[in-house]
Amino acid sequence: MESINTLKGYGKVSDQENQIPPSSPLPKPSSRKTLVAIVSLLLILAIVALTAGVFTRPPSHNPPPSNSLKAVCAVTPYPQTCLDALSSSSLKESDPESILELSLRIASEKVSALSVSFRSIDDVPGEEPAVKDCAKLYADAGSQLNETLSEIVAEKKGGGNWMTEKVVGDVKTWISAAMTDGETCSDGLEEMGTVVGNEIKREMVRVNQMMSVCLAIVSQMKKLLLVFH
Ligand SMILES: *[C@@H]1O[C@H](CO)[C@@H](O)[C@H](O)[C@H]1NC(C)=O
Question: Which of 45, 134, 199, 207 lies 20 to 30 Å from 124, alpha-carbon distance?
């Protein structure tokens, strides 16, 4: 119906144009009809394209997660945390190795940011020793994850099958060490009865979950590679 109205609308425009004095340089009626037909056709195509776009657009602002991303996140203990973190990031390649790399990058950024948050509340007078410890622990965890990433990037440059038992073993050890730092922070806060803000508490949960996600992906890498290749 919309397209018919559009056509009627154009008919009206051309009627009005006919009333313009003949002195104005109007195209010949036949070519104007062709022009109206072309414009109408383009409009109809645009409406069809827009309508199709509305129905295929996902409800979230992020592009829909690829099937490989869903499959990789499904092997982790926190698939939703994994999907949320990785879908909002630009994932160029969707093989399990690239997904592992990206999840480590996101984890290291989050961990480092959390360390900065702890450091900033440590600046408040009446400092709590547990808060100071947490700032150090998460900074340590961040360096640990960054070194893991550098190692992976270096191994990948060598080409071939870089995900050897040794590399996988090392990566698992380093991520576990970073996770232990997170646990030590939580234990310290609890033991000292230190109260931190809800925002930091929530971020600690997310960060710790994200590290578990990384550990799960690397632990299941062999299986994932079999599925994907
Ligand atoms: C880890 O690397 C990220 C990204 O390069 C950086 O923002 C962060 O400060 C690093 N963290 C630490 C603890 O070095």
Answer: 207
Residue with tokens 């038992």: 165
Q: Whose CA is nearest to atom 4 of ligand 1?
A: 109
Q: Where in the chain are the domains?
A: 28-57, 67-228
38 CB-side CA count, 13 A: 6
Per residue in 20-70, pLDDT tens? 455 555 555 567 777 777 777 777 776 666 556 555 544 445 566 778 899
- CB 106 near ligand 1, within 6 Å: no
Cα separation, 145 vs 147, whole angstroms? 5
The 10s digit of each residue's pLDDT in 200-212 is 999 999 999 999 9
Q: Is residue 6 within 6 Å of ligand 1 at its C-beta?
A: no
Hey, what CATH class is 67-228 in? mainly alpha
Tell whether ligand 1 has an atom less than 6 A from the beta carbon of residue 108.
Answer: yes
